[in-house]
Structure formats: structure tokens, C-alpha cells
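As agreed, record copied across for absentees:
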Amino acid sequence: MKNIGKHIRYLTKKKGMDFSMEECKVSSLYNLEETIAKELLEKVEYPWEALAEINDYILKIGNTLDLNKYEKIGEDVWIAKSAKVMPTAYIHGPAIIGENAEIRHCAFIRGKAIVGEGAVVGNSTELKNVILFNKVQVPHYNYVGDSILGYKAHMGAGSITSNVKSDKKLVVVKNGDKKIETGIKKFGAMIGDEVEVGCGSVLNPGTVVGKNSNIYPLSSVRGVIPKNSIYKNKNEIIEKSIL
């Protein structure tokens, strides 16, 4: 079939289809020009290796921020003067809220949080030990813990990252018969640039979602989802191809 212009082709992936662990690397997931945490993430191969350093990194760069653009509020909280923060929001340090970010009604930022430029943290959303790249949106009843969300990533209403396994064991990132022992107990999700997570979805501990992928609403996701994909369920992952 010949058509003019760009079209989307959908190719069903069989259960157990193996994708390279290259999908999990910082270089595959993120455009580091779109975060104030560039220096931190450049030092690591896999993004979860940066989780333990978010606290100290914020403290390191906080006092170097341009005072014409940022002001320090309370203890170790830096908020851009152009950011909109509702009076009912709670922000515990250390935290950095970037320029033109929006922190909405009853947002709960528990600390160790970098909120990028133009990002939205919405009604009753809770953050803890996270990096949100520029223009990330977590706008409605989201929980995001021990996670990194790439440029323009969006989590639909009620979608969450589950950051601790029910058996409390250390998290392993699995992709088919390949796996990476992370050595950490708290690990939510590594979400690539421009990922769309559908409403009511749960990203289980150790989930990695490649850039430009979509997660169907009400999904329970685990393991590695390749870039440019549509996740329907664990047995059906659809590749998006532009012809």
C-alpha cells in the first residue's frame, strides 16, 4: 500500500521478545540538555545509579543557582521566581523547583526532588527522591518515588510508580532472559523522554520505559519496554514505525 506522508505501522511483538539492555542506559533514555541534573546523570551508565546521589547533588548546586532567577525558601529549598506554587502545596528540602514550573493544590514534595523547567506537579501528587526533566507532567493524583522522568514525559491521572517490592528484596531489572542486579531496595521507574503513561497504570519496581513509548491505561508494567512502542499488556507490545 503506497501513501504519501507519514504513517504509523504497528507490529505485534511476541511474548518473551528480547530487547537489548542498551535500552536501559542514560544515553538511550534521555536528552541531558533538558535537565539541571545533567552533571549527575553524565557520571552514570544506568540512571538508577544516580538515585542515591540526588540529595547531595541538590545541596551541591543549590547555592550556585542564579539569585536573579531563584530564591531559597526555608531549609534547602530553591524555587525559581517564575514558578507558580500554590499556598496549599508542601515542599520539603532538599528540592529545586525550576523556572516556570507549576506546583498545584495540595502537591506533596517529600524532599530529594528536582522539578524541571515548565514541569507540572499536580493536585495531590506526591514526589520523593526524583528527577523530573523539563516539561514533565505528573498532574493528577500521581505517586512518583525513586524514579527519573525524561523530557516531556507525562503520567496520566492516578498512575503511579511502585518503588518497593512486596517481598522487600533488592530490585532486579529484567528484559527477557537478561537481567541487571541493581543492588538497591527502592527503585520505581526510569521513564524516557516523551513517554505517555495511561491513567490508572502501575509501574512496578525496576520498570524501564524507552523514549517515545505509550503505556495503555490501567496497565501493570514491569521490566523493560523498548523505545517507540505501545504497551497493551505483557504479551502484546506494539512497535511504532514511521513509514
Helices lie at 26-29, 38-42, 54-62.
